[in-house]
Design a protein that fits this description.
heterodimer, A: 557 residues, mainly alpha, MetI-like fold, two-stranded antiparallel sheet, 23 helices, 4 strands, 2% strand, B: 331 residues, alpha+beta, five-stranded antiparallel sheet, 18 strands
């Protein structure tokens, strides 16, 4: 027996307590530093005027008719794109989950394509297709002007499509066959069954997709800046105010204006998902779609049309990158891949470095945050959870601007990070913190707590348990988190646009600059390099999982 | 006393899961916590293991209070209901785990692992992964893993309930034999009275967070002190009809009078008579449902060839020395 001889054991100096405290403290400190402090800086700056603290900036903003128009534009785009995307994605997800049409696996991958590229690539493709010198105008002699609302509208629908599709596809994947059978036996027609069974069964997915898409669209910067023309939206305006005119106070005001609807949408989404009780129980009979020639053919045609639109925007970018000079000389050429302008291919390497750094930091700190929050329930946990998912409500542009305002002051504790790829990586990690955190939490929760307890009763410290038991079990999740952050870091534009410097130029930003200068072919070539990198990395990770014999871990979120 | 619980209490919100429990165990005892689900038996075991901490009371091991001593420092071996083997480690690595945590030398670990696996007859499966073994084999590995570091106490949390009946039966004997051979103080939680009666030296019958009675299987069966114990272990007739209670003494405020079905004696000319409402033939036993004096009684008859039919009238006696006076609620 090895019980100490003192009659009462002290509660304090225990290595497990120190470990738990260190994990919670580190997570909390990082979240405060990289989320709360920048947000606070935005809020503070929006109220700071030359005459002191007040609402002057907001008043000035809303008395300027141009700004009011911009707010209106933002909502116009947000609402119209959200409605269209939801309808299109719902149909597409329905076709994939609830019919027996052929090509479902291929179509699924096509639907996800826009995730693998920066948000401005859709607009770039649209320029090649419908721009002044686009394929359509040159072939048919038409004079379609795509710059403006319609350009943003189409580009953002395609951009937001995979996000809506993923959520709706999950919602449509589970269904209780008994409901459908009883509806049929009561004599309900197909349309009636859809209205009374299918639609109500997926309403939470629909609401959730709606909020997510709306947030993505109003905070998207890449597509509007490329194809918006004179039709300005808030995300572009914040860029113009800050990067163009160095008007940080105005930037902060717009940041707050963007933050509000995004925060409301996030609260709405959380509220909806909390009310979402399990409609499918253990007794449910899974619904297996039965072949139906006419229906399957109709849905296949619909899905092929949608896929064609998505694919055409990607394909034309790839095509344009390989022609001599769009649209005048369409002979094959590799000269745009020489990257003889600017820093050559350097931005791509920088992007890959940033993406790897982002992935590594996320694997440590995001899964660490999820683990700490799950394994050490204490009073601080709720606060920690809130901070961990708060970034879902913070548009990238706002976070990026917050980083400038908070950290770009000599003497700041982390000023040394400024102008390095480290600050960009941290910005990426905390920009997408909520999604990564929830992904990790879901998976960690599924691991039986018995392993922890068994390990403890065998004499292991928490640290040893994590190292020897938990990590070997959850490593596919950690990898999935890393892949998610790598992908986002490669394609993100909004948050990092404020943080790059000539020495830390990124690939996605290069595409933007090249496009801005009219070097469309080179922009396309750069975009292709980004997409190729993302896909290659994804394939590598998938192979790693396959080699390790892990199945059922989906890497695309 | 080797292990003592003093007024141990645990609440989860408003629910009192374990309510002022007092218990003493001698070294080498095999004790079962028996009770229906939700009676607090698992919580009590987890309190002993250090996986939960009590709100009140103390748990003493050889006189030393264990409060504040985390599970990993208690040196108690725990076997969980299911799925507690580390899926990423072989059988041998699982058994070695606790020894590595205690920084044993490698050679000593290796020989101890061999010894433990031989003890549970799994020496041939040392290099297999848990999912390659059957449920019963997995629980034997879990047992070997828990016993390897020479724990002071072995705690078993429903170790057999996830297994199928056949395996369960054979493991009962195996665990009991192992426990006897090692002489290790053991607490097992179970809701299965057969399991408890077959394996334990003494049974702790629990209900609603409290201990109702502690005793050997025989004591609990023949001399239940409370209505709960009588009804949970075996079958019991509560005597309610005044006609049946006549001559048995006063009923009392907080007590009930009861008799087991096999103690009701069928006679030719008995003190009471009733009508047969149901007959179940169970081989060595015949179980009758009888209505007598306005209440239902269950009567078990052994070794009777002559069949009884529904609707027949039977005479019976309630032998006074077989009627038990039980506390009607928890003590």
């Amino acid at each position: 027996m090895s019980v100490s001889t003192s009659t009462r054991h002290s509660r304090l100096p225990d290595s497990d307590r120190i470990f738990a405290f260190a994990m919670i403290a580190a997570t909390g400190l990082l979240l405060v530093t990289f989320v709360l402090v920048p947000l606070w800086a935005i809020l503070k700056n929006s109220f700071v005027t030359p005459d002191g603290i007040g609402l002057d900036n907001f008043v000035r903003y809303f008395t300027d008719s141009r700004f009011v128009t911009i707010v209106g534009n933002t909502f116009e785009v947000g609402i119209s794109v959200t409605l269209t995307t939801m309808v299109l994605a719902y149909g597409f997800a329905y076709a994939i989950q609830r019919t027996c049409m052929p090509l479902r696996n291929v179509l699924r991958i096509v639907a996800l394509l826009p995730i693998f590229s920066p948000s401005l690539v859709q607009a770039l493709g649209l320029q090649f297709l419908l721009g002044r010198n686009g394929l359509v105008n040159r072939t048919f002699g038409t004079e379609i002007d795509i710059y403006g609302f319609w350009g943003i509208y189409i580009a953002d629908v395609v951009y937001a499509f995979p996000h809506a599709f993923l959520i709706l596809s999950t919602a449509l994947a589970v269904a209780d066959a008994r409901l459908y059978e009883s509806a049929e036996s009561l004599g309900a027609g197909a349309w009636r069954i859809f209205r009374t069974v299918t639609l109500p069964g997926t309403r939470y997915g629909l609401a959730s997709a709606g909020f997510v898409v709306f947030t993505i669209v109003i905070t998207d910067f890449g597509n509007p800046v490329v194809i918006g023309g004179n039709y300005s939206v808030l995300a572009v305006e914040i860029y113009n105010q800050v990067s163009g005119q160095a008007n940080f106070a105005m930037g902060a005001v717009i940041g707050v204006l963007l933050l509000l609807p995004a925060a409301l949408a996030m609260i709405g989404e959380k509220w909806i998902s909390r009310r979402h009780f399990a409609s499918v129980t253990a007794q449910s009979v899974p619904l297996a779609p039965q072949p139906n020639r006419a229906r399957d053919t109709a849905w296949l045609i619909y899905s092929l049309l949608v896929a064609a639109v998505i694919l055409s925007l990607v394909a034309i970018v790839i095509y344009a990158s390989f022609v001599r000079l769009w649209p005048y000389n369409l002979s094959f050429s590799l000269r745009h891949y020489e990257f003889d302008v600017q820093n050559g291919l350097q931005p791509l390497w920088t992007s890959i470095q940033v993406a790897i750094l982002t992935a590594v930091i996320s694997m440590i700190f995001v899964t660490g945050a999820a683990y700490a929050n799950h394994a050490f329930p204490m009073r601080a946990s709720r606060v920690l959870y809130f901070l961990a998912i708060l970034p879902a409500a913070v548009p990238g542009m706002v976070l990026g601007l917050g980083y400038i305002l908070a950290f770009n002051t000599p003497g700041q504790p982390i000023y040394w990070m400024y102008d390095t790829i480290l600050i960009i990586a941290f910005c990426n990690v905390y920009h997408y913190h909520a999604q990564g955190f929830l992904l990790a939490t879901t998976n960690i929760k599924q691991i039986s707590s018995t392993f922890d307890e068994a390990s403890a009763t065998l004499g292991a410290t928490k640290l040893k348990t994590v190292w020897r038991v938990t990590l070997p079990i959850i490593w596919p999740t950690v990898l999935a988190v890393g892949v998610f952050f790598f992908m986002r870091a490669m394609v993100t534009l909004s948050a990092v646009i404020f943080l790059i410097s000539p020495s830390t130029q990124l690939a996605a930003v290069s595409v933007l600059y090249l496009d801005d200068r009219g070097a469309l072919n080179q922009a396309a070539a750069f975009a292709v390099c980004i997409m190729a990198t993302v896909v290659a990395f994804l394939v590598l990770a998938q192979i790693a999982l396959r080699v390790a014999g892990i199945r059922g871990v989906s890497l695309v979120r | 006393m080797f292990l003592s619980l003093r007024d141990v209490t645990k609440r989860f919100g408003a629910v009192v899961a374990v309510d002022h429990v007092n218990l003493d165990l001698s070294e080498g005892d095999f004790v079962c916590f028996l009770g229906p689900s939700g009676c607090g038996k698992t919580t009590l075991l987890r309190l002993v293991a250090g996986l939960e901490s009590p709100d009140e009371g103390e748990i003493l091991l050889q006189g030393t209070d264990l409060a504040g001593l985390p599970a990993r420092m208690r040196n108690f071996g725990v076997v969980f209901q299911s799925y507690s083997l580390f899926p990423n480690m072989t059988v041998a690595r699982n058994v070695a785990y606790g020894l590595e945590c205690r920084k044993w030398e490698k050679a000593r670990i290796d020989s101890r692992v061999k010894e433990m696996l031989a003890l549970v007859h799994l020496d041939k499966h040392a290099e297999k992964l848990p999912h390659e073994l059957s449920g019963g084999m997995q629980q034997r590995v879990a047992l070997a893993r828990a016993l390897a570091p020479e724990p002071a106490v072995l705690l078993l949390d429903e170790p057999l309930s996830a297994l199928d009946a056949k395996v369960r039966e054979s493991l009962r004997g195996e665990i009991r034999e192992l426990q006897q051979r090692l002489g290790i103080t053991t607490i097992m939680v179970t809701h299965d009275q057969d399991e408890a009666m077959e394996m334990a030296d003494s049974i702790v019958a629990m209900n609603r967070g409290r201990i109702e009675q502690v005793g050997t299987a025989e004591e609990l069966y023949w001399e239940p002190e409370t209505r709960f114990v009588g009804e949970f272990i075996g079958r019991l007739n509560l005597l309610e009809a005044p006609a049946l209670l006549a001559g048995l003494g006063p009923q009392g405020q907080d007590t009930v009078l009861a008799i087991r079905p096999e103690h009701v004696a069928l006679t030719n000319e008995g003190a009471h008579s009733g009508t047969v409402r149901s007959v179940a033939f169970l081989g060595n036993t015949m179980r009758l449902g009888v209505e007598a004096a306005g209440q239902d009684l269950e009567i078990e008859v052994h070794g009777r060839r002559k069949r009884l039919n529904v609707g027949e009238t039977v005479n019976f006696e309630l032998p006074a020395d077989r009627v038990r006076r039980l506390a009607s609620s928890s003590v």
